[in-house]
Write a sequence for this structure.
């Protein structure tokens, strides 16, 4: 082998056209895809999907069956309205949510590692301003109330039982 063989040459990453790199929306899209890819790879090891994390936080309802099969949530008929189910996190669900929160923070910290704390705060503030206009559901303040949205397992009710209060 010579010093110029393909195996010994450093890999070069093809550069994108300057016009694309100059576009903030293009960069946001590319970074969004990169963040999603990293997140999906990280969640593969948990046996769960990021949507499951969202459900455990109370933002989605479409995958409840899978979570119930894994023992992370429990559904019961509402004694006051038989058409409704009450959903609560089990002890395993609470532990899993804690683990997924830590994983989510780890992914974000790794992804934003090139930025300092002040830069991260500025980036977040700018993204929130954009979200208020284009994705209002992402805003930190509930529309019209001026009050912060509640965090945690919003929408998941605690049922009486051995796990209540944990």
């Amino acid at each position: 082998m010579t010093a110029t063989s393909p195996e010994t040459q450093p890999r070069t990453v093809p550069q994108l056209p300057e016009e694309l790199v100059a576009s903030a929306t293009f960069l946001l899209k590319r970074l969004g895809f990169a963040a999603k890819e990293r997140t999906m790879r990280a969640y593969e090891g948990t046996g769960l999907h990021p949507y499951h994390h969202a459900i455990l936080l109370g933002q989605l309802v479409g995958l409840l069956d899978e979570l119930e099969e894994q023992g992370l949530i429990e559904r019961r008929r509402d004694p006051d309205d038989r058409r409704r189910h009450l959903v609560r996190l089990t002890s395993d669900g609470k532990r899993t949510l804690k683990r997924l929160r830590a994983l989510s923070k780890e992914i974000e910290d790794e992804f934003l590692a090139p930025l300092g704390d002040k830069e991260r705060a500025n980036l977040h503030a700018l993204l929130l301003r954009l979200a208020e206009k284009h994705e209002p559901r992402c805003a930190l303040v509930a529309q019209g109330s001026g009050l912060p949205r509640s965090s945690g397992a919003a929408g998941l009710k605690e049922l009486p039982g051995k796990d209540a209060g944990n």
In short: DSSP finds six helices and two strands in the chain. Residues 24-44 form the longest helix (21 residues). The mean pLDDT is 77. The radius of gyration is 22 Å.
